[in-house]
From TrEMBL:
<dbReference type="Pfam" id="PF04978">
    <property type="entry name" value="MST"/>
</dbReference>
<dbReference type="InterPro" id="IPR007061">
    <property type="entry name" value="MST-like"/>
</dbReference>
<feature type="compositionally biased region" description="Basic and acidic residues">
    <location>
        <begin position="12"/>
        <end position="21"/>
    </location>
</feature>
<dbReference type="InterPro" id="IPR034660">
    <property type="entry name" value="DinB/YfiT-like"/>
</dbReference>
<protein>
    <submittedName>
        <fullName>DinB family protein</fullName>
    </submittedName>
</protein>
<feature type="region of interest" description="Disordered">
    <location>
        <begin position="1"/>
        <end position="21"/>
    </location>
</feature>
Length: 176
């Protein structure tokens, strides 16, 4: 079914907010959630082979790689930086940031999505209890949490653009 190039009717889009945001934190978190949902939407309905397709040569970017990479990014900023838990090992440290992986199967896909969703859930908890004005150390520079959230929005927006291209190469699906 065609919805003017959209994946589903706009009133059924789970990323849409119910009304205007109130305040800076709600606005920033709303954009972050929108892009998290966009990446999930781009992966929806694909099998392991399709999710692992590296569709834009010579890049090794795939939808599965993006999910793994964003689990790494979520963990790094929320656990390691905001919570200052530098003692925990970075996810996919030896796997090119999550983009390199063995042959994909349903277990690898499930594991990647579970990990990504767990890191998002943890990040939400951190954001619930953290003030945007809080200052953390980022490579020796004092940085407000709000700057990290803006960076996360940028990171997701950039990779959702990659996901658009990969998904179009995989099955021709565009929009939303």
């Amino acid at each position: 079914m065609n919805f003017d190039g959209m994946w589903l009717p706009q009133d059924q889009d789970p990323r849409m907010q119910e009304g205007p945001t109130r305040g800076e934190k709600e606005c920033l978190v709303g954009y972050l959630e929108h892009y998290r949902g966009t990446l999930a939407l781009k992966c929806d309905g694909l099998d392991a082979r399709q999710l692992a397709t590296r569709a834009v040569p010579p890049s090794n970017i795939s939808l599965l790689g993006l999910v793994r990479h964003m689990a790494r990014v979520e963990q790094s900023w929320f656990r390691r930086v905001i919570e200052e838990r530098m003692d925990i090992p970075r996810l996919f440290q030896d796997d090119d940031g999550g983009f390199d992986f063995p042959d994909a199967d349903d277990d690898l896909v499930r594991e990647a999505h579970d990990l990504w969703e767990a890191e998002i859930a943890y990040a939400r908890e951190v954001l619930d209890r953290t003030d945007l004005d809080a200052v953390v150390d980022v490579h020796g520079e004092p940085t407000e949490v709000r700057d990290i959230i803006v960076h996360m929005i940028e990171e997701y927006a950039r990779h959702c653009g990659h996901a658009d291209l990969v998904r179009e190469c995989v099955d021709g699906r565009t929009g939303q």
